[in-house]
Amino acid sequence: MKLITKIRWPLGGALLSSALVIGLSGFAQQAQSSWWGEGHEEGYRAKNAGNPTHIEECGACHIAYPAQLLPKAAWQEILSNLDNHFDEDASLDDATRDELASFLMKHASDSENAGKFKKFTRGIELQNPPIQITELKYFERKHDEINHQRMVINNPDVGSFSQCQACHEKAEQGIFDEDTVNIPNFGRWDD
Amino acid sequence: MLLTPDSSSKTGSSSKTSAWILSALLLTLAIPSYAQSANPVVEQLLKEYRSEGVTEFSSTRDGNLWQQSFDYSKAPASRSCTSCHGKDIRQKGLHIRTQKEIKPLAPSINPSRLTDEKQIRKWLKRNCKWTLGRECSPQEKGDLLLWIQSQ
User: Fold this and answer.
1) 3-state secondary structure of A181
2) Quick one: closest CA in A to B93, which residue?
3) Tell me, what's the pLDDT at A117?
């Protein structure tokens, strides 16, 4: 009885600190692995997908397609034809358009900020590129296992490949990794 | 005079306090009735349309324009405001070409609606051109805004 009273405090202290150490090292491990994860394989994650002007002006009718998906010349072409943008009027005042131009140029697929999205420049003429992401060679290659009729066109919750967010659950945050894909009415993509 | 806290400074602290309470009370009473009757941004636009010759606005006439269909040379060949926003604007809409969800337009559900003049001008211009094939007249714009505001 007496012994227990005597060692009660040191024992409790020891137990508490070892619990703390275990807890902390677990935390550190977790932090390290996610750090490594990003460093090794950065994934299809567009940085700066959250530019407020871009989201407001280019994210009203469809998702604000991340700048990293198209090369500079394509963005330039799009911005100079906003009054007839795929048969829509998306025109803007000059100041807003200039602001968007510098944002889109800075993060385009052929810029130094493209990250893994640099692959979207593969097989296209950078000076004369398609202006649709869905017409890029690399896009087509990444989606060639998908049944276009059944899973896209005739899928009431998709309709067209331009609706990235229909299948890519985190598209609005600029994230397109394979493990975030869920084709409506067909389910998760495992291959 | 009685209501301004400053003027009561000579008459001692108790009347000072009651003046504060009274003005606070009046203020809280004033806020809800203000929000209900007039949206300053819409008021400003209506004033502008009046200066362009409109004498009277009507939100009922406009419930009709909201649902009216217009023929168009390109697909979709039949167009109306409901094509993207739906008939009941307290519900969310769906952009007819891109399938993107559009948040409810009704200010009663979505208080951020009709609060930004630039946005209102921009979208009325775009959406009238898309739907009617031309810009809306000041009469039509005013009627539409009043109708949206009433929802």
Assistant:
1) strand
2) A61
3) 96
* ipTM for this prediction: 0.71
pLDDT of residue A72: 98
Residue of B nearest to A93 (CA): B122
Cβ-contact B144, B62 below 8 angstroms: yes
Find the angle CA(A189)-CA(A58)-CA(B131) to the nearest 5 degrees: 105
Q: Which of A62, A91, A158 sits opposite B100 (nearest CB)?
A: A62
* A60, amino acid identity: A
A62:B74 CB<8 A: no
- Cβ separation of A61 and B98 shorter than 8 Å? yes
Range B38-150: architecture per CATH:
Orthogonal Bundle (1.10)
d(CA A168, CA A154): 18
Q: Which of B24-33, B105-114, B126-135, B141-150 has the weakest average pLDDT?
A: B24-33
Give residue B60's pLDDT. Answer: 77
Are the C-beta atoms of B29 and B18 separated by less than 8 Å?
no
Q: Which residues of A touch B125 (CB under 8 A)?
A: 89
| Residue where the block lists tokens 């979505």 | B110
A164 part of contact set with chain B, CB < 8 Å: no
Test mutation, A55, A88, A164, A167, chain B, max B CBs within 10 A: A88
Q: Which of A13-17, A89-93, B8-12 bottoms out in mean pLDDT, i.e. has the lowest?
A: B8-12
Within 10 A of A157 (CB to CB), how many other CB atoms are there? 12
> What is the DSSP code (8-state) at residue A131?
S
Quick check: A188 pLDDT over 90?
no
What is the H or E stretch that residue B46 is in? helix B40-51
**Confidence band (pLDDT; 50, 70, 90) for B81?**
very high
* Identity of the amino acid at A71: P
**Of B88, B96, B103, nearest in space to B151 by CA:** B88
Contact call for B126 and A89, based on CB within 8 A: yes
pTM of the model: 0.82
- Residues A155, A182 contacting (CB under 8 angstroms): no
